[in-house]
């Protein structure tokens, strides 16, 4: 004994089962040569795979230490190797992240719809304001015309200079 507690490991899945899970997850896209299962100091599992993609490209993969079912992890690793080989730019997001993304898309769609409505109303209001200003300009022109008509009718002529005082 070394003085530290040795982890108790209960192996519930054999290496043949891990190989089968990996090949099942690969769906015929990978040929596996070697499969390994070992344990980290903390008792978590580490999987190792080597083999070839169907196009002849070799792969070698060592997982990070994990807890849980090695068969499930082996199938995930196979799918990830295939996706990486095909050049997919992203892996599928977990369900909670997909749900959050959908919620955000829904809110953005509603915000965009609302912004379009506000923009339409603003355009209508600006058009109405221009119409009112056009009418105001016409009223001012009519006032100027009426003042000129009154001035002409009264015979008030001016040269535009200052008014003449008495005795000028």
Question: How would you portray this structure in words?
Answer:
There is one protein chain. This protein is an alpha+beta fold and 168 residues long. The chain folds into 2 domains: 15-86, Porphobilinogen deaminase, C-terminal domain (Double Stranded RNA Binding Domain, 2-Layer Sandwich); 93-156. Helices cover 52% and strands 14% of the residues. The chain has 3 helices and 3 strands; from the N terminus they run αβββαα. It has helices at residues 15-26, 70-86, 95-153, and strands spanning 30-39, 45-53, 58-62. The protein has a 3-stranded antiparallel sheet with strand order 1-2-3, with helices on one face. Strand 2 (45-53) and strand 3 form a beta hairpin. Helix 1 runs parallel beside helix 2 (70-86). The radius of gyration is 42 Å and the shape is rod-shaped. The termini are far apart.
**What is the overall shape?**
rod-shaped
Distance between the termini: 130 Å
In CATH, the architecture of the largest domain is: 2-Layer Sandwich
Query: Quick one: CATH class of the largest domain?
Result: Alpha Beta
Structural class: alpha+beta
Strand order, sheet with most strands: 1-2-3
Low-confidence stretches: 5-11
> How much strand content do the residues show?
5-15%
- Figure out the total of helices: 3
Q: C-alpha Rg, in Å?
A: 42 Å
- Please summarize the sheet with the most strands: 3 strands, antiparallel
Return the string of H and E elements: HEEEHH
Provide the residue-averaged pLDDT: 86
Q: What is the helix content?
A: 40-55%
Number of domains: 2
**How many beta-strand elements?**
3
């Amino acid at each position: 004994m070394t003085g530290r507690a040795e982890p108790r490991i209960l192996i519930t899945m054999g290496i043949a089962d891990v190989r089968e899970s990996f090949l099942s997850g690969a769906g015929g896209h990978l040929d596996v040569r070697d499969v390994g299962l070992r344990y980290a100091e903390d008792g978590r599992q580490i999987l190792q795979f080597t083999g070839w993609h169907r196009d002849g490209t070799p792969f070698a993969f060592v997982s990070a230490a994990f807890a849980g079912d090695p068969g499930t992890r082996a199938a995930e690793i196979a799918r990830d190797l295939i996706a990486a080989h095909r050049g997919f730019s992203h892996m599928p997001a977990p369900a909670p992240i997909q749900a959050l993304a959908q919620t955000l898309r829904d809110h953005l769609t509603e915000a965009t719809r609302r912004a379009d409505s506000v923009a339409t109303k603003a355009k209508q209001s600006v058009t109405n304001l221009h119409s009112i200003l056009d009418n105001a300009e016409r009223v001012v022109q009519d006032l100027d015309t009426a003042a000129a008509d009154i001035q002409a009718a009264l015979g008030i002529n001016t040269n535009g200079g200052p008014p003449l005082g008495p005795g000028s």
